[in-house]
Amino acid sequence: MTTAYDKLIAKTRERHLLGSTAQLLGWDQQALMPEQGIEFRARQLQLLARLVHRMLTDPELGDLLAAANDELAGAAPESVEAVNVRELQRLWDRSTRVPEDLVAELSEVESLAQHEWAKARAADDFARFLPWLERLVTLERRKAEALGVPEGGELWDALGDLYETGMRAAALESLFRSLRQELVGLLEELRAGGTPPARSLDVPLPIEDQRRFVRFASEAIGFDYTRGRLDVSTHPFCSGSQPRDVRLTTRFTEDELFDALYSTLHESGHGIYEQGLRYEHAGTPMGLAVSLGVHESQSRLWENTVARSRAFWDWLTPRLGGFFGARLAGWSAEDLWRAANIVQPSLIRVEADELTYNLHVMVRFELELLLFRGELEPRDVPAAWNERYRDYLGIEVPDDRRGCLQDVHWSAGLFGYFPTYTLGNLYAAQLYAKAEAELGPQAERFREGDFTTLRTWLGERVHRQGQRWLAPDLVREVTGADPDPAYLITALRTKLRDVYRVA
Ligand code: ZN
């Protein structure tokens, strides 16, 4: 007898076949497609998106969910079946609560607003973008109301919840408040009492050599090239349609080896997570990543915690000659490690270092909250932005192009998204502290090129669990504690005092 649950899963897998096909075409568009393919590709993707949406909102799915919920009454809440139904129900609610005409209007406004935003940014003309920002905030508020404010929460939470289920503005405010104070304090300490690294790595190196090198490094930390690829795109990304086919991209500039290396290792961290999901559950919640924040924790953990450690450079430095001949012969592991950890407050989020990055995120989060609480008018965004850059980062924003117009997110309707970046950093530090508590210090292992011990631990504790728990519950389950900024603060303080030789 076929149960409603079986039918529900069969439909979900079918939808994933279609959705993952669209994902692959999206990857191809960024990595391989000839320029003139764009118009036809847009039509292909539009059709697939429409079909996926139709499958998502098929009324039969609502009936199957209701029946499956009945079938599973009394099942253990963390069983595969209960997890799948819980998360599919959530997806169903999200897909069907927002009225179709609002979905259509948002999609049109977002596409126009992105176009106008690009022009406004190029011309450093906030006034040009302002009417679009006003319209987007109004529409996003309506969307949040349609989705429904979570119990005890506020309007912003309905959007934040889309990217990190269970994330609440009030909890973030308190997490971020203590994190901000500590980070700003550490920044001042490094400035006042530290010795900045003497050299930054700007040696020109042939792209072909860099390509072999970053592939070697990503393979060493555990990205499996029999189940994945590495290509080039303007903005590096990871596209995982299923655990046996994970696509990474990176980018190369002659005199920026760190950009290629750390972009690759960041995306490899995302890729290792995708490859670590359970193939037998592909396309169902038990075979999918938990959230953006947890995904980001995996990329940051490999990029920052592992690959910006002294032990990592002790292992890697003697191997550089095999890729670059004598070009980096004058660089010691100490030089490279220090150069990889330079802290410098700057205007642009995507170029920020490990410490100040979080301050960039907090500025955006605070402004979003004020906008959604009705305590800030869109026209006052530039002034509020610049004031915070002065307070938190100690820098003057010279123009809106390098200020509040720098990110694409708001023009794309991605309100509620930014905090997931900093949550990723928090989770990474907390998970890594637990890994070391259980496995012992990892530095000696890294020095010998053993990254398998850590990766296996993450695979068992995080990757293979799929969506069994929501992000904060996963952190609690694995580490035995609530998400807590103290781990990140301690990790940064220990490393950066060392890098900056603060007594
Ligand atoms: Zn990432």
Quick summary of this structure?
The protein is mostly helical. It is about 60% helix and about 5% strand.
Report on the architecture of this protein:
- This protein has 21 helices and 3 strands.
- By secondary structure, it is mainly α.
- The chain has a 3-stranded mixed beta sheet, with helices on both faces.
- A hairpin with a 2-residue loop joins strand 2 and strand 3 (245-250).
- Helix 1 packs across helix 3 and helix 8 (169-193) runs antiparallel to helix 15 (357-372).
- The structure holds zinc ion.
Number of strands: 3
Which cofactor or ligand species appear? Answer: zinc ion
Mean pLDDT: 96
From the N-terminal CA to the C-terminal CA, the straight-line distance is: 71 Å
Characterize the main sheet.
3 strands, mixed
What is the N-to-C order of secondary-structure elements (H for helix, E for strand)? Answer: HHHHHHHHHEEEHHHHHHHHHHHH
Question: Layout of helices and strands, plus pairs?
Answer:
Elements: H1 4-31, H2 38-56, H3 59-71, H4 80-97, H5 100-122, H6 126-147, H7 155-163, H8 169-193, H9 207-221, E1 228-232, E2 238-242, E3 245-250, H10 257-276, H11 292-306, H12 310-316, H13 321-324, H14 333-339, H15 357-372, H16 381-393, H17 419-439, H18 443-447, H19 452-461, H20 471-479, H21 486-499
Parallel strand pairs: 1-3
Antiparallel strand pairs: 2-3
Helix pairs in contact: 1-2, 1-3, 3-4, 5-6, 6-7, 8-15, 8-21, 9-10, 10-11, 11-17, 12-14, 15-16, 15-17, 17-21
Bound molecules: zinc ion (ZN).
